[in-house]
Amino acid sequence: MLTNLRSPGRVLRQARVRKRVRGTDDRPRLTVFRSLNHIYAQVISDESGRTLAAASSRSAEVRDKLGGKSGNKSAAKEVGELVARKARDAGVQAVVFDRNGFLYHGRVRTLAEAAREAGLEF
């Protein structure tokens, strides 16, 4: 039986990065998940085990702006700006970036740059 050959590699990269990257209450972790059609971002405090802010291309705020195109760089930019705004509203100024095993390229990079421009420090 054939399986997706990218997924086991991503899981290994994810575990390797997660050994070093931990989100604290002072500096939570901004994690990104990229699927074929959508992109998701969460700001997580690993110490308290809480999600402080979350945004995705499936949320109503982003979906209305995009008009049905949710798997591209413009969607990633909107999600980055939205998660940064929600994180700042929750009192978070600085985060550590967790690319979650994905390459820092394309939609992941666009989301990170948009979050930086919207005021998050990492």
Number of strands: 4
How far apart lie the N and C ends? 42 Å
CATH topology: Nucleotidyltransferase, domain 5
Structural class: alpha+beta
Widest sheet: strand order?
Answer: 3-2-1-4
Q: Give the helix proportion (percent range).
A: 40-55%
- Estimated radius of gyration: 14 Å
**Overall pLDDT level:** 92
Strand content: 15-25%
How many H/I helical runs? 4
Specify the CATH class. Answer: Alpha Beta
Task: Identify the CATH architecture.
Answer: 2-Layer Sandwich
Quickly count the domains.
1
What are the low-pLDDT stretches, counting only 5+ consecutive residues below 50?
none
Largest sheet: 4 strands, mixed
Shape: globular
SSE succession: HEEEHHEH
Work out the oligomeric state of the chains in this entry: single chain
Please describe what this structure looks like.
By secondary structure, the chain is of the alpha+beta class. The protein has a single domain, classed as Nucleotidyltransferase, domain 5 (2-Layer Sandwich), CATH 3.30.420.100. Helix content is 41%, strand content 19%. The protein is built from four helices and four strands, in the order αβββααβα. The protein has a four-stranded mixed beta sheet, with helices on one face. Strand 2 and strand 3 (50-56) form a beta hairpin. The chain is globular and about 40 Å long.
Please write out the topology.
Elements: H1 6-20, E1 29-34, E2 39-45, E3 50-56, H2 60-66, H3 73-89, E4 96-98, H4 107-117
Parallel strand pairs: 1-4
Antiparallel strand pairs: 1-2, 2-3
Helix pairs in contact: 2-3, 3-4
Summarize the structure.
The chain has four helices and four strands. It has helices spanning 6-20, 60-66, 73-89, 107-117, and strands at 29-34, 39-45, 50-56, 96-98. A hairpin with a 4-residue loop joins strand 2 (39-45) and strand 3.
